[in-house]
Design a protein that fits this description.
The complex is a heterodimer of chains A (262) and B (339). Chain A has 262 residues and is an alpha/beta fold. Chain A contains ten helices and ten strands. Chain A has two domains: 185 residues, P-loop containing nucleotide triphosphate hydrolases (Rossmann fold, 3-Layer(aba) Sandwich), CATH 3.40.50.300; 62 residues, no CATH class. In chain A, helix 6 crosses helix 7. Chain B has two domains: 115 residues, no CATH class; 195 residues, Orthogonal Bundle (MetI-like fold), CATH 1.10.3720.10. Chain B is 78% helix and 0% strand. In chain B, helix 8 packs parallel to helix 11, helix 12 crosses helix 13 and helix 14 runs antiparallel to helix 15. The radius of gyration of chain B is 27 Å and the shape is flat. Chain B starts with a helix and ends in a 10-residue tail after the last helix. Chains A and B meet through strand 6 and helix 4 of A and helix 12 and helix 13 of B. Chain A: Keywords: ATP-binding, Cell membrane, Membrane, Nucleotide-binding, Translocase, Transport.
Chain lengths: 262, 339
């Protein structure tokens, strides 16, 4: 594992393959299908967004990728190997920061290293991660002393300290106010550019998906199927007012069946 | 508009008592009146003769003690003008004043007027007498009680904690322990008393068992509910970061359950006091509980009050100790209840 952390920058991101992934929940004896034969190929270091209406099963898909649940049918592979259990190379940032309230920001960020017994050798990484998300002065603060945006930054640092090959972002900016949100979107892009991990973002915000991702996968209502794929090859930073951006946004809304509103 | 409001004097300044304006002066007056109240208790005890045919040996001593306290309070009140450290006493002033009034009333209706029947209601100096003449036996009692309580409580808390974690974490442990807990747990520990005293080799070990039982039940149930109530998102986070089962129990479940565990520890402590006293009265023949009963048997009511007073101090002290331990360990929590 130590070798994995020190591996080469250029190939740090991992690939992700979804083959005909279907999933259903058992709701009081009734099967509730949430994912319907999803197939997807994500390349090394790519930033892909999954866009879909609320409750369409996006978060379920992320739990499967993280290895927290197993799919009813189909298979998920990373680097050609089947995903069977959670692994610190695939880290999730949830919508709710879920910091441990009994730990300071520093110890929250230290969680992954501590869990794997790497705290002693890689202590310095915690300070680095805190600097990366701009929380240097808050190492000794408790979560209840942080604002929503700061807590989400701390959660991001907790993920990044493990040097993930695949960062799974489950609407990580969903609970932030719009100003903090815009600032954090730009920060996410620059973090991704600097650390070159593969990123999989779930969101229901069309602009956010197009601002951050190179490829936007549009999902249908539950059970989620892939409806369309929109590629945005514009360089970063992207601008909301840019004519090409506006055109892409219109295209995505059309795919979501909301073009009337525009 | 606002300047007009500013110019109107506030009611307190209007009243003409310019002397009371500064809070230092006010606290000095407060402190001195408390000192005056205690010197009144002293004077009253010393110069109003005790009722005829009573022979309280420490009336003078009690008066001197009250006088000394009055002097100390006066000095503290004067020091408070200059030193901030003494100003904290100011908060206690109303209580110290009320206490002086209470002692004066108690002194009056017992030693001076004899309105309350003896030997059930001895005057304050009789309790001072017990503290001075019988301190050896009282100290022995404190030591015996503390030893019994500490052993039983720590044992019960430890076993209860481990059992609670086991039920909360492992389905199989829950399957076997839960029914036993449901069946036996609600039974008051004192109901085991007759059985415990002949099953165990000594009354001391029997009492340890009973105190541990009384402590263990609430600690188990609350620890269990704490572990069961941990948000599943906490586990998801740790699992994606590579946590082992051991890490999930020790570093996620237990810390998250600690607020509940402390509620159990508080309930257990209260239960353990009750069982301690009963066990000492019925079997152990040592400790403050036994002293209480022994004193009552000899109609030595002053001794009984002294032991009760000591017990109140000890129990309250232990609760305070547990609260400060909790405040230290759970300082991350918002809105802790202050003791």
């Amino acid at each position: 594992m130590v070798a994995a952390i020190a591996s080469d920058h250029a190939v740090r991101g991992s690939t992700l393959t979804l083959r005909e992934v279907s999933h259903r929940f058992d709701l009081e004896g009734q099967p509730l299908p949430v994912l319907d034969r999803i197939s997807l190929q994500v390349g090394r270091g790519e930033f892909v967004a999954l866009l879909g209406p609320s409750g369409c099963g996006k978060s379920t898909l992320l739990r499967l990728v993280a290895g927290l649940d197993t799919p009813t049918a189909g298979s998920l592979l990373t680097e050609g190997r089947e995903i069977e259990a959670p692994d610190p190379s695939r880290v999730v940032v949830f919508q709710d920061p879920t910091l441990y309230p009994w730990r300071t920001v520093w110890s929250n960020v230290a969680l992954g290293l501590e869990a794997r017994g790497l705290l002693r050798t890689h202590r310095g990484r915690i300070e680095d991660a805190l600097r990366l998300v701009g929380l240097t002065g808050f190492a000794n603060a408790y979560p209840h002393q942080l604002s929503g945006g700061m807590a989400q930054r701390a959660a991001l640092a907790r993920a990044l300290v493990n040097d993930p090959k695949l960062l799974i972002l489950d609407e990580p900016l969903g609970q932030l106010d719009s100003l903090t949100r815009i600032a954090m979107q730009a920060e996410l892009v620059s973090l991704w550019q600097r650390s070159s991990f593969t990123a999989l973002l779930v969101t229901h915000d069309v602009e956010e998906a197009l601002l951050l991702a190179g490829r936007v996968i549009v999902l249908s209502d539950r059970p989620a199927r892939i409806k369309a794929e929109v590629v945005n090859s514009q360089p970063y930073p992207r601008h909301r007012g840019d004519p090409h951006f506006v055109e892409l946004r219109r295209e995505v809304f059309e795919q979501l069946g909301l073009d009337e509103a525009w | 508009m606002s300047s007009v409001i500013d110019e109107v004097p506030r009611p307190s300044e209007q009243s003409g008592f310019g002397f009371f304006e500064s809070s230092t002066t006010r606290s000095l007056i407060g402190g001195l009146s408390v000192a005056a109240a205690w010197s009144m208790v002293a004077a009253f005890t010393a110069f109003w003769p005790d009722r005829p045919e009573s022979d309280w040996a420490y009336t003078g001593g009690f008066a001197i003690a009250c006088g000394a306290l009055a002097l100390a309070l006066a000095v503290a009140a004067l020091a408070g003008v200059r030193f901030v450290a003494f100003q904290r006493l100011q908060r206690l002033s109303p209580w110290l004043f009320a206490l002086a009034m209470f002692l004066a009333a108690w002194e009056a209706v017992t030693a001076k007027l004899g309105l309350l029947p003896l030997p059930f209601f001895p005057p304050p100096q009789a309790i001072v007498e017990v503290a001075i003449d019988d301190w050896g036996r009282l100290a022995e009692g404190i030591f015996a009680s503390a030893r019994l309580l500490a052993t039983g409580y720590l044992l019960g808390a430890a076993v209860g904690f481990v059992t609670g974690v086991a039920i909360g974490w492992s389905r199989r442990a829950g399957y076997w322990i839960h029914p036993v807990l449901r069946f036996i747990g609600p039974l008051p520990a004192t109901a085991w008393l007759p059985l415990a005293f002949f099953v165990f080799p000594s009354s001391f070990s029997a009492s340890i068992f009973l105190i541990a039982l009384a402590t263990g039940f609430p600690v188990t149930v609350l620890t269990w509910s704490g572990i069961a109530g941990v948000k599943s998102a906490y586990y998801d986070i740790a699992r994606t970061l590579g946590a082992t089962q051991r890490f999930l129990v020790l570093k996620v479940a237990i810390p998250a359950a600690m607020p509940h565990v402390f509620v159990g520890l508080f309930m257990g402590l209260g239960n353990s006091f009750a069982v301690l006293v009963v066990a000492e009265m019925l079997g152990v023949k040592a400790g403050l509980g036994w002293y209480l009963q022994w004193a009552q048997g000899w109609a030595a009511y002053a001794n009984m009050y002294a032991a009760l007073l000591l017990m109140a101090f000890l129990c309250s002290g232990l609760i305070t100790l547990l609260f400060s331990l909790r405040d230290r360990l759970l300082s991350w929590q918002k809105g802790l209840v202050r003791w």
